[in-house]
Each structure stands twice: as structure tokens, then as C-alpha cells.
Design goal:
Oligomer: single chain
Largest sheet: 7 strands, mixed
Strand content: 5-15%
CATH topology of one domain: Butyryl-CoA Dehydrogenase, subunit A, domain 3
Structural class: alpha+beta
Number of strands: 11
Number of helices: 18
Order of helices and strands: HHHEEHHHHEEEEEEEEEHHHHHHHHHHH
Shape: globular
Length: 601
């Protein structure tokens, strides 16, 4: 039966040995309490909560789903009790400032705990996960009064939060939204409109839900320049900041979905609901990007989560399932057949999952380090980290969810026909994973953001910020002949990244459609190069440990072997992406719309 074990050894390899989090914390202002012993203790407790409390509820959530009756959403059995344990354990407050009730620990430490929660039970993890985006938005843009009233309750976990963007007629194109915000005499606003696809918009796990809502003021200009941001609570706060009267908003229904059944995806109706402006009028989208970037990095984590979960369960199955004999001769002659893990194609599927899961882990936690720096670094450090994050966030979100979905499918495939049967959990993993490439901006939207806004609009300056890091790494390690198979390939691809960018930029000067035509292949190419950088870093670390002598020889050799697999089996995909992105827009746009489908003979 499916189960989850927190990969603490690999998390520590990435964060301590490859990325040197301990050195990072020693230099990070306000991170004094994040000592090695403290970090280890938090990870051990987080692992216990994920394994013992959340993992057993993963299948329960899928089978029971959420129920909806008369505007009330009831979460699956055990979800509410697990959330109370989560709050009692102090987990919501881990990475938030002490002045609002937080523990003041680094965001990157919170991300390690979030990885374990997300992998053990993604549907459950979405309830507190969305609260962090609401917290970050209010922390950066809220007034002192808003922080005292709402942020403190969100940090404690007493209340949860959501983001309310999408409307029935507009998804990605937020410039079309119609929700209205009418000024009131008391300084509040009456919010009226309907939002759809609101994850955790209504539930029974916390006493109050704080909705972060995009809406238009009466005199707002058209398009995205006329959007403002509001706090709209389910229950209004009384004079003491506690739960008061019910606000005039309601859940109209919940969606019947392909996956993530344990999380309520709601239609939310705001009927003149009392709301409070966050930030400046008509600058709501700028404020919301704080929430969106938090959500995008969290969604990138979903790709890693489903790859890791699939890997753990398919490896266990492949070691146990007997089918056929190895072509080179029986490996277990005393048994009726060999375990399927001996077969090369099964190895291909397992190693694909392993390469994407473990490479994605390094990518995610590197980004979480950058988040720390954007909050607590010097002015110069913040500027560099911000620029790196602007480049890497769309790559992480889109690439890791695309490869995470591929890995989840490979996990199911290892099981053969049993993978298609519900009791093994592999088909749930695929269904739950599928949404990740869609929400918080589809792969296509992330690709346009990357190529159009982050790269071409900066004349490649943002890209060069990261390619210089790769170039420096290659230069430092090119002398080790044992690492040549990684370093030389990475160095060449790093140069090609700049070359193809220039070629697309030149084509786009003649035809702007070339950007949209090339963007997804460009993003995937970028993702494979980024992951190649992290696999090369992990290979350097593993080789160093082996040179020094270690009693974990198998662990470090496996790192080198997985790096080799990634470079020789997966990285060649970049060649196809280059050919596709440079093939031009004509093969996409030449066909008349009427000719896409012929149904009559």
C-alpha cells in the first residue's frame, strides 16, 4: 500500500552539503537561532508529522473528498484534527516575524518543512499553504492595523487565507475582471462579484478565512492598471480583533475535479462584502505579485512532491514485483522470476523520476535561499537575489511541474496495470499532479513571462545574471577530469542559452509572434540547463565526499550515477527544444482557423 517517508538524508545533502545552508544562516541577519541542532530538530519533528499524521490521510482525502451543503464545506475525515495538531505544533508561525507572533526563522527552513507536508498530502497542505501568500502580502503592504488584526491570526494559524483572482469570464487575463469595490463612509469598501477556482475558499478547519481579493474601484482605469487589492474576511473582526459578525460573502458551490479531492475548490460570491484596501488604489496587481510569486514557488514544489512520492512507491514496487528474467541471465534463480528493477526500461523510468525529484529539490531550495536574501540581505544582495528570482520563478514553476507530471506518470507505468488501480495510489498521484501545470499561470503563461518580460525586455541582462554564475562554476571545476563529462557539456549549453536567446530576439524584431511560438520550448530548454547546473553541483559535492573517504559510499556513488543518467539520457532533449524554438512561427500560424477540423466527408 502507498506510503511516504521523509527523504531527510537527501534534504540534508542538498541544503547542508551542496548549498551550505549553515553558512548561509550564519551570515543571514536575524537567523541566529537557525543553528544546525535547531534545524535538525525541526526537520525530525516535521518528518514525524508528515509521515504519521498527514500521509495516512492522503488516500482518505481522495476517496471522501469535500462535501458541500447549504454553503458549508466539510473537509474529509481527519483533516480538521490534523490542522489543529499543525497549529498546536507552531508550524504556521515558523518563518514569520516575531513582532506578529512568528518564530522569525528563515523562509528556506520553512520550505524544507513544506516539502515534507506537500509530498505526504498535497490536498491537505494547500489549506495552510495558501495562508503563507496572504501573510506575505499583508506583511509587505498592509497597514499596522491590518497586520495586528489579520496577520497575527494568520501567523498563529487560528485563521487561514486565500487568493481570489479568477472570475468566470477571465482567468489569466486579469485586466478583464469585473468585481466591484464601492467606497463606504467608514473607510471600508463594499466588494461585489464572483470568483471561481478559489482553493480553500470555504472549509471547516479554521475559525475564519481571510480572502485577498482583486477588485475595481468606481473610477478605476480600464485593464490591469485599474485593479486594487482588498482584505475581505469571512467573519468581520470585532473591536478586539476577534471573530464578529458574518460578512456578506458565501461559497456558491465546489468543483468536481480530476484530482486534489481533499481540497475545496470554491465558487465565491461577494455580495457587498466589507473589505479593506491593501496598498495604493489601482496598484493591486503589484501587491498581488507578492502572493503570486509565493504561490508559483509553492506550485513548483508540487512538481517535486509528486515526483518524489511516485519515486518512493515505484522503487518499492519494482524491488518486489517479479516478472520475466534479466536478458543477461537470471538474477534471482531461486525465485520464479526476477524483480522488475533489473530490467533496463524499468531502470529508465525510475531514474527519470529520481533525476527530476532530486534535481528539483536542489532547484527549489536554492530559490528558497534567494527568498531569504530578498528579505534580509544587504541592499546589493537583495537586488541581485530579486533579479535571479525574477528569472528562476517562471522556470521553476513551469519546468518542475511539467517534469513532475512526467515523473508521476512514469511512477504509474512502473506498476503496469496495477498502477491504474486505485488501491496502489499511483493514479491518484497522477490526477493530483495534473493541475500543477495549469494553476498560478499555465506553462504557456510562464514561458511568455520568462522569454518576453524577463529576458527580451531586459535585453538579456536578467539571463546573464544567472549564466555568469554557471560560467564561474564551470571555470572553477574544469580542471577535474573526472567531472569533465558534466562541466564541458554544461559550459557549452550555457553559451548556447545566450545564442538561442539572441536568435529569437532577432526573429522577434521582424515578427512579434515569434516570441509566443518559441516560448515554451525556450522555457523547457532553460529548465534542463538549470537542472544540469544543479546536478553538476551535486556531482562535485559527491565526488569530493568520496575523495575524502566516507561510510556512505553508496549514497554518493548514486548521486554521480544519477547525474550521468541525467546528462546522457535527459539533457539531450535540449537539442529538440532548440530545433523547435528556432523553426519559426509559420508552422503554427499558417493554417486558417476553419481548417483545423473537418468532420464531414
Amino acid at each position: 500500500m502507498p506510503e511516504y517517508k521523509a527523504p531527510l538524508r537527501d534534504i540534508k545533502f542538498v541544503t547542508e552539503e551542496v548549498l551550505d545552508f549553515h553558512g548561509h544562516y550564519a551570515k543571514l541577519p536575524g537567523a541566529e537561532e537557525a543553528t544546525p541542532d535547531m534545524v535538525s530538530a525541526i526537520l525530525e519533528e516535521g518528518a514525524k508529522f508528515a509521515e504519521r499524521v498527514l500521509s495516512p490521510l492522503n488516500r482518505v482525502g481522495d476517496e471522501q473528498g469535500c462535501t458541500f451543503k447549504d454553503g458549508v464545506v466539510t473537509t474529509p475525515e481527519g483533516f480538521k484534527e490534523a490542522y489543529q495538531q499543525y497549529v498546536e505544533g507552531g508550524w504556521p508561525s515558523l518563518s514569520h516575524p516575531a513582532e506578529v507572533g512568528g518564530q522569525g526563522l528563515p523562509d528556506s527552513l520553512g520550505m524544507m518543512v513544506t516539502e515534507m507536508i506537500a509530498t505526504s498530502n498535497w490536498s491537505w497542505g494547500m489549506y495552510p499553504g495558501l495562508s503563507h501568500g496572504a501573510m506575505n502580502t499583508i506583511e509587505l503592504h498592509g497597514t499596522d492595523e491590518q497586520k495586528q488584526t489579520y496577520l497575527t491570526k494568520l501567523v498563529s494559524g487560528e485563521w487561514t487565507g486565500t487568493m481570489c483572482l479568477t472570475e468566470p469570464h477571465c482567468g489569466t487575463d486579469l485586466g478583464m475582471l469585473k468585481t466591484k469595490a464601492e467606497p463606504q463612509a467608514d473607510g471600508s469598501y463594499a466588494i461585489t462579484g464572483t470568483k471561481i477556482f478559489i482553493s480553500a475558499g470555504e472549509h471547516d478547519m479554521a475559525g475564519n478565512i481571510v480572502h485577498i481579493v482583486l477588485a475595481r474601484l468606481p473610477d478605476a482605469p480600464a485593464g490591469t492598471k485599474g485593479i486594487s487589492l482588498f482584505i475581505v474576511p469571512k467573519f468581520n473582526a470585532d473591536e478586539n480583533g476577534e471573530i464578529g459578525t458574518r460578512n456578506t460573502l458565501s461559497c456558491g458551490s465546489i468543483e468536481h475535479k480530476m484530482g486534489i479531492h481533499g481540497n475545496a475548490t470554491c465558487v465565491m460570491n461577494f455580495d457587498g462584502a466589507k473589505g479593506y484596501l491593501i496598498g495604493e488604489p489601482n496598484r493591486g496587481l503589484n501587491c498581488m505579485f507578492v502572493f503570486m510569486n509565493t504561490a508559483r514557488l509553492g506550485t513548483a514544489l508540487q512538481g517535486l512532491a509528486h515526483a518524489e512520492w511516485g519515486l518512493q512507491n515505484s522503487v518499492a514496487y519494482a524491488k518486489d514485483r517479479l516478472q520475466m528474467r534479466a536478458l543477461s541471465g537470471a538474477k534471482s534463480p531461486e525465485k520464479a522470476a526476477d524483480a522488475i528493477i533489473v530490467h533496463p526500461d524499468v531502470r529508465r523510468m525510475l531514474l527519470t523520476q529520481k533525476a527530476f525529484a532530486e534535481g528539483g529539490r536542489a532547484f527549489i531550495h536554492y530559490c528558497s535561499m534567494l527568498v531569504d536574501i530578498t528579505k534580509k540581505g544587504s541592499v546589493e544582495e537583495k537586488a541581485e537575489a530579486d533579479e535571479l528570482m525574477s528569472l528562476l520563478t517562471p522556470i521553476a514553476k513551469a519546468f518542475l511541474t511539467e517534469t513532475g507530471f512526467e515523473a508521476a506518470n512514469q511512477g504509474l507505468q512502473v506498476f503496469g496495470g496495477h498502477g491504474y488501480i486505485a488501491e496502489w495510489g499511483m493514479e491518484q498521484n497522477v490526477r493530483d499532479c495534473r493541475i500543477a501545470t495549469i494553476y498560478e499561470g499555465t506553462t504557456g503563461i510562464q514561458a511568455l513571462d520568462l522569454l518576453g518580460r524577463k529576458v527580451l525586455m531586459t535585453q538579456g541582462a536578467t539571463l546573464r545574471r544567472f549564466t555568469k554564475i554557471i560560467h564561474k562554476f564551470c571555470k572553477e571545476n574544469k580542471g577535474d577530469k573526472r567531472l569533465k563529462s558534466y562541466i564541458s557539456v554544461l559550459d557549452k549549453l550555457n553559451s548556447e542559452w545566450g545564442d538561442v536567446t539572441l536568435k529569437i530576439g532577432m526573429k522577434a524584431m521582424r515578427n512579434k509572434e515569434e516570441v509566443g511560438a518559441a516560448s515554451v520550448d525556450y522555457l523547457m530548454f532553460s529548465g534542463y540547463v538549470v537542472l544540469a547546473y544543479f546536478w553538476a553541483r551535486m556531482a562535485v559535492t559527491a565526488q569530493t565526499k568520496l575523495d575524502q573517504g566516507t561510510d556512505e559510499e553508496g549514497f554518493y556513488k548514486a548521486k554521480l550515477q544519477t547525474a550521468t543518467f541525467y546528462y546522457e539520457r535527459l539533457l539531450p532533449r535540449t537539442k529538440a527544444h532548440v530545433d523547435a524554438m528556432l523553426s519559426g512561427a509559420d508552422n503554427l500560424l499558417a493554417m486558417d482557423e476553419e481548417n483545423f477540423l473537418f468532420l464531414n466527408a
